[in-house]
Amino acid sequence: MMPARLPSPRLLLAPVMALLLAVAALPPASAAEDVLPPRVTVHDSRTSSPSVDIARVTLRGAPWENPTQYVEVEVPGGFRPGHHLTVWFDVDGDAEPEGRLDARLRKPGPKRRSDLRVDQQFRIGGGWDDPGTRVHCRDDQDFMPVGNVRPGDAVLVVGLSSLWDCLQLPYPSGDDHGAWRTAVRVAKDGRSDTAPSRRGWSPQVLGWCGRQPRCG
Fold first, then answer.
1. Which residue in 10, 73, 104, 130 has the most C-beta neighbors within 10 A?
2. Is the CB of residue 173 less than 8 Å from the CB of residue 213?
3. What pLDDT digit, counting tens, does each position of 135-172 carry?
4. d(CA 31, CA 33)
5. CB of 156 closer than 8 Å to CB of 148
6. How far is 117 from 17, CA to CA, in rounded Å?
7. Residue 22 to residues 25, 26, 71: CA-CA distances in angstroms?
């Protein structure tokens, strides 16, 4: 009986070469992280009272040299005395926020008659509703996250330098750029609007410079 004929070495090598080519074509491990954008905009489709209706929320990360993260909240009706802004922050991707910024707008004071007074505080822990712990959250020049707001301004800007400092969490290190997302609520006179609606989270935005523990 003739022995069974062995397959050609070329036929044996073909599947191996195909596998090697497929592996070589895979993106590096960090590529999934690089997909995160440095800027995210949430367009709110929910129609609320014009006094609190949020048109959009824009998140701007700090992936390179600028260490500050920004949140821009647009209310077409304009921000006025009595508005209460809450911005929840998440950096670990779970359902609960790690901290939040509360900012209440008041009538202009005697020293700055053109700007609204802003009573603001940053709190960590507490989830969505509990008080949590008030913490220091200012930049190197001792500026608070919400700066000047004039009566009727349609856009309010929150600047955090840095979000990880305010949350009292370690910075992303090495090649880890970090990521963060928000949920925003604007309330006034018993009415409110949230973006995304129903306490959903915005998409994640690229958070930090990555190759250095700190930037700036």
1. 73
2. yes
3. 999 987 789 999 999 999 999 999 998 899 999 999 88
4. 5
5. no
6. 68
7. 5, 7, 41
pLDDT of 67-102, one tens digit each? 789 999 999 999 999 999 999 999 999 999 999 999
Q: Cis bond leading into 196, ω under 30°?
A: yes
- What is the spatial distance between Cα 19 and Cα 114, in angstroms, rounded to a whole number? 67
Of the candidates 168, 164, 172, the one whose C-alpha atom is nearest the C-alpha of residue 125 is 168
CA distance 190 to 192: 7
Judge whether 44 and 187 are in contact, CB under 8 Å: no
Q: What is the value of pTM for the model shown?
A: 0.81
- Give CA 178 to chain center in angstroms: 10
Token pair recorded at residue 205: 């935005």
- How many residues are recorded in the chain? 216
Please report, as a single letter, which amino acid is at residue 1: M
> Would residue 192 be called left, alpha or beta, if left means φ above 0 and alpha means ψ between -120 and 50 degrees?
beta
Quick one: 178 exposed, middle or buried, by C-beta within 10 A (0-12, 13-18, 19+)? Answer: buried
